[in-house]
Predict the 3D structure of the following.
Amino acid sequence: MKQCLLVFCALLMFPVGAYAAGAIAVDDEEGEGEPGYGLYTGANSREEAAREALKQCKASGNKNCKVVARFDTCGAYAASTQYYGVGWGSTEKAATTMAKEQCGANCRIVVSECE
């Protein structure tokens, strides 16, 4: 019992699972064939993830990037030439389903990721 208490206390001092966040940034100008995007996961906060996703999006040569999704577990971005949708959830399937529902018909998943 005493050993279990010591292990529990050690876990409180040094957390095993650190908080991780992700974000998706896109340049989704209407009519583009393939929207440019940046995806970042493993950040310490949603804000950090958003900054890094924007950097990646812009580094790929996109000019009009914006953050469309911030997530803790899974995120997804769906697009067509006219519409887009974003999703998040506890599974990749939940995130992609939400993104497709928001986007509508003729949309496809451009990017999805889970932490």
About this structure: The CA atoms of residues 28 and 92 lie 22 Å apart. Residues 18-114 form one domain. Confidence is low (pLDDT under 50) at residues 1-17. Strands lie at 21-27, 36-43, 66-71, 74-79, 84-89, 108-114.
